Amino acid sequence: MDENIQYINFSVGEQFFALRIDEVQEIIRMVPVTTVPFGSPEIRGFTSLYGKVVSVVSLRVLLGMPDQEDTAATRIIVVPYKDGFVPLIVDTVDSVVTYERFEKPAEEHKSFMSGVFNEIGYGEDHTAGILNLEALLGSLTHS
């Protein structure tokens, strides 16, 4: 891995995650979301972004955590995916960071995350799972 690549560092629950900065289109404050009854639990609802109506995904639920009320710190990380984009709700967005070293996930991480991150990034003051968007969003589109 190139250690000069920058990452957006964010949290969901007590876990820190990161995405390469080139995988993030935009970070926005929480927007009103229209809920849909009987929808998939990870789909919080729908909203209009960039002139299109899109599904808003709770990263908490997608990762198997219980959903929670939004706070002033709740953000949406908009990521490009296939021919469009997917808004992902996260608890907080922390910072832009570079990591000093990377390691493959330990077995306990692999079973917990079932392949949604490729590696663990180690920084000066924290550790974060580097998300694999293809695995994460691929599981969403096939469910």
UniProtKB/TrEMBL annotation:
Residues in CheW-like domain copies: 4-142
Matching PROSITE patterns: CHEW
Domain of life: Bacteria
InterPro entries to which the protein is assigned, alphabetical: CheW (IPR039315), CheW-like_dom_sf (IPR036061), CheW-lke_dom (IPR002545)
Gene3D superfamilies named in the record: CheA-289, Domain 4, SH3 Domains
Coiled-coil spans in chain: none
PANTHER family listed in its UniProt record: CHEMOTAXIS PROTEIN CHEW, CHEMOTAXIS SENSOR HISTIDINE KINASE-RELATED
Protein name: Purine-binding chemotaxis protein CheW
